[in-house]
Specification:
- There is one protein chain.
- This protein is mostly beta strands and about 450 residues long.
- About 5% of the residues lie in helices and about 35% in strands.
- The strands form 6 sheets. It has a 9-stranded antiparallel β-sheet with strand order 1-16-20-13-10-15-8-7-28. A 6-stranded antiparallel β-sheet has the order 6-25-24-27-22-21, with no helix packed on it.
- The relative contact order is 0.19.
Length: about 450
């Protein structure tokens, strides 16, 4: 039985302790490591946290597999993936600081799989100290054929923009389409197929604490991203005796080993260190229902905390369809300077603060304390708009937001799709002050 033929399925819940088996009776009951596992399988624990982490943050899963992971690893040799960068890389690009925006990254010529198609846009923090993150774009045109990967440096949050992904992990299979996301834990082996022949999207590589749901505070028990809408794959496995490669990213470098079989051979498992997917359309937004524009933190789907309460290593924030009803209010996001650094992408539709120039597949970077906000046309339109109830529809933008400065890579700084005139979008903002309470709106 293989992952290609196993129905698998998805299990709901976030942070649950799951159990699942692809063959009846494959999962031991009452203990983790029997003397002899059913079907002649090997018991193995995959730990995503230190053994002594508090119960609420202790992450581990028990895997029952055809071969232990030591058989999926031979002698490694270094390989080069020059467009996948890791922090610290503060001087990779010579481009001066400033607000930056790009049109979509074009697809490459020829056959390029998901790993080879990774292009790093920004890095933040230090991969060696397990703090910070990197923002990537993937542009892929080929399946990973008998090629597998795991990232020892961090958790991967995948945000498809064009084309579906079929993500085969050790614990099961996830089909992930645009307007969905998935998370692959640090150290988990996977490969990616492209059902539509090619795919482009965004990746946040978080070096720090794992993603979790943000506290809701006064919002209470409901809304935002609800736990039941997260889906974890049921057990599915490959039993393939074919020459294969496993590539690992470790402390910012890449190594490959050759084996004679698939490493996705977990027949049963239980635990809470798991991959998962989420449909962004199930996010239940909250907002102002009388006046003023609340902070964008109300749109946080996932957060990877730092050691400082309320200050994230990474926040994943979305701007979904929603009603806007605030009275006597400038409704788009206000002008802002921020201690956090914001890498933004547009999955579909139009972003309300930037009606021109920011297109699906595009990106922008507003680094810490650099001002940003609506362009001149957006300001004019919002300042004169009829303030009846308005549905902002058919849109989905997102941010990877971090407490750390995001440094451009040389790839990002020299990318031909970078809009050199982006800063000019604010050039048309007029002086409205004339000493009168009404101001000058002619």
């Amino acid at each position: 039985m293989s992952a290609e033929t196993t129905p698998g399925g998805l299990m709901p819940g976030f942070g649950n302790d799951f159990e699942t088996e692809a063959l009846p009776g494959a999962l031991p009951q009452g203990q983790n490591s029997p003397q002899r596992c059913p079907y002649g399988l090997y018991a193995e624990q995959l730990s995503g946290s230190p053994f002594t982490a508090p119960r609420a943050t202790n992450e581990r899963s028990w895997l029952y597999r055809i071969r232990p992971s030591v058989k999926h690893s031979g002698r490694y040799k270094a390989v080069d993936l020059p467009l996948w960068k890791s922090g610290p890389a503060p001087f990779d690009s010579e481009l001066p600081i400033g607000q930056t925006r790009w049109d979509p990254v074009p697809y490459p010529d020829g056959a390029v799989d998901f790993i080879a198609g990774m292009r790093t846009m920004t890095t933040a923090g230090d991969v060696h100290g397990q703090a910070g993150m990197a923002s990537h774009i993937y542009v892929a045109t080929a399946d990973m054929q008998d090629a597998y990967f795991f990232n020892a440096d961090g958790e991967l949050l995948l945000v498809p923009q064009d084309g579906r992904l079929r993500v085969f992990t050790e614990l099961g299979v996830m089909d992930v389409a645009p307007l969905e996301i998935c998370v692959i834990p640090r150290g988990m082996v996977f490969r990616v197929e492209l059902p539509d022949g090619r795919a482009r999207g965004y990746v946040c590589e978080s070096y720090g604490a794992i993603f979790t749901l943000p506290d809701r505070g006064p919002i209470g028990a409901n809304c935002l991203a609800n736990p039941r809408d997260f889906k974890t794959p049921a057990a599915a496995f490959e039993d393939k005796e074919t020459p294969s490669t496993v590539t690992v990213k470790w402390c910012g470098r890449f190594y490959v080993t050759e084996i004679g079989h698939s490493p996705l051979d977990v027949v049963a498992w239980h635990g809470n260190y798991v991959p998962y997917k989420y449909d962004l359309r199930t996010f239940s937004p909250v907002g102002a229902i009388l006046f003023d524009h609340p902070d964008p933190s109300i749109f946080t789907v996932l957060t990877a905390p730092s050691g400082e309460p309320g200050t994230a290593n990474v926040d994943f924030v979305i701007f979904p369809p929603r009603w806007m009803v605030a009275e006597n209010t400038f409704r788009p996001p206000w002008y802002h300077r921020n201690i956090m650094s914001e890498f933004m992408g547009l999955i579909t539709g139009q972003y309300d603060a930037k009606e021109q120039g920011f297109i699906p597949g595009g990106m922008s970077l507003h680094n810490m304390m650099l001002p940003h906000g609506p362009d001149a046309d957006g300001f004019e339109k919002a300042s004169r708009a009829d303030l009846g109830p308005q549905k902002l529809d058919a849109t989905m933008a997102f941010m990877f937001e971090t407490r750390l400065p995001q440094h451009l890579t040389d790839f990002a700084g020299s990318l031909k799709t970078r809009q050199e005139d982006y800063v000019d979008c604010w050039a048309g903002l007029k002086k409205r002050f004339n000493g009168t309470p009404e101001g000058d709106w002619d």
